[in-house]
Each structure stands twice: as C-alpha cells, then as structure tokens.
Specification:
- The chain is α/β, with parallel strands linked by helices.
- About 35% of the residues lie in helices and about 15% in strands.
- The strands form 2 sheets. Strands 5-6-7-9-8 form a 5-stranded mixed β-sheet, with helices on one face.
- Helix 2 (about 50-65) runs parallel beside helix 3 (about 85-95).
- The mean pLDDT is about 90.
C-alpha cells in the first residue's frame, strides 16, 4: 500500500480518521510505503518543535509495531524533510527491523515511490534538493495564519487548486523528467509511479510508458484514498 500527505498535527488534517484502516491494511500487507508529508512541521498545532517530533516518533512506532511482518518504507516530503525527524528516523530504523527510510524515493520491483515535489523544482534532483533545503520548517505558522488558512478551506477553493495547478499531463511530464535525471525512468524498467504532494487523486493515468497513481490527501473536503500498489 501507498499513502502520502497525511499532514499530521496540522489543524486541517483528517488523517486520524484513517489510522485504524491503515493499521488493519498494514497487518495483512507485505509492504507499506509512507510517501512524504506524513507529518507537517510548518503547520503543526502542537506547542513546540520537540512536542511535534515526539508525537511523530510515537505515531510511527505505533504503526510499525502493529504490523511486525509488514515492511515499512518512509519517504520525506517538503513538509517533513526536517533534520530533527531524520535524527529520530535513524534511531527508529535501528530499533525496528521492519522500518527503513529514504529522503527522496524508493524503488521496489518495477515501481517507483516518491513524494512528488519534484514537479515544483525544475524536475531535477539538484533542484529538488535545493528546494527542500529552503523549506522554512522552523518558522512555524501561528494561530493567526492557521485561522486564515481555515477560512480558505471553508470557501472550498482548496478543492480546485490541485486540479488547476497540477494538470495530469504536465505533472506526468515533469515527473518523467525527474525520473530520467535520477536514472529511474521507463528505460530502467519503471512501469508504475506512486506519488503525492499535489493533493489530487490520480487513479492509473498512463503517459510515457508509465502509469501514475496518487491517493490525494485527507484534508477536509479533498478526495483521499489509500492506494493499493503493485511491486
């Protein structure tokens, strides 16, 4: 299975509504990929960075412990590529035999799993790494910014932005460019790509010899699904 963009600890996330389902699926799965922006350090409503890191570690430990025969792969996204989380992940994957993490992507069989923010950063690995390094994770948004964001959510504008900002064809083309840059394109045997970031469900879009899949995001009012993946 593949899931991304839970944005846990952000005020707008409804991810907790899906945790029990995730745990049930993981208990029967061979592999479960967490595709980035699982946690949201910029919009966290917890009282401090340390509290957010503690909560993230506890959440991961609970998920991994509930399915000891499932292999979990944790990828990072633009909202949770944080040095504090990386330090915690290094300790967690040493203590849990069924957890591994990668900052950008993981290939399993003929499938590639990545967060998808390469679509916003010149579709190269260098561009993606540079963009991630500029993320203002420590500049946490306060109550006023959260209130404004919630006001936008109430208007429903957030439902149309992903459709307008990330047309399927353009998104697929940019991801293919990124895949070529890292040597993981269709010529290397990739047939399926599972990604997040755009908050737009894509259920099997064929382009350039590859099939693209995206489960959306559990932000209130936005479609979301846990994706059954082929590897």
């Amino acid at each position: 299975y593949f899931v991304s963009d839970l944005h846990l600890f952000a005020q707008r996330s409804a991810a907790d509504d899906h945790l029990e389902t995730m745990q049930e699926l993981a208990s029967t799965a061979d592999t479960f990929v967490l595709g980035g922006d699982i946690f949201d350090f910029r919009w966290s409503t917890l009282p401090s960075l340390e509290a957010t890191l503690d909560a993230a570690e506890d959440w991961l430990r609970e998920l991994v412990d509930c399915a000891p025969t499932c292999e979990f792969h944790m990828l990072l996204g633009n909202h949770d590529h944080h040095e504090g989380l990386i330090e915690r992940l290094d300790h967690l994957d040493q203590r849990h035999h069924n957890l591994a993490w990668e900052p950008y992507y993981v290939r399993l069989g003929n499938s590639l799993f990545l967060h998808g923010d390469a679509v916003d950063s010149r579709a190269t690995h260098a561009g993606l790494a540079a963009a991630r390094s500029r993320q203002p994770h420590h500049n946490r948004r306060g109550p006023a910014a959260n209130w404004l964001y919630d006001a936008v959510i109430q208007t429903g504008v957030h439902r149309t932005i992903p459709v307008l900002a990330y047309p399927k064809r353009r998104t697929a083309k940019r991801l293919l460019c990124y895949m070529s840059d890292i040597g993981q394109g269709p010529d290397a045997g990739i047939r399926n790509v599972y990604f997040g970031h755009t908050h737009r469900v894509i259920d099997g879009y064929h382009f350039g010899g590859v099939t693209f899949h995206n489960g959306g995001a559990p932000i209130r009012g936005v479609p979301f699904q846990i994706v059954s993946a082929e590897i």
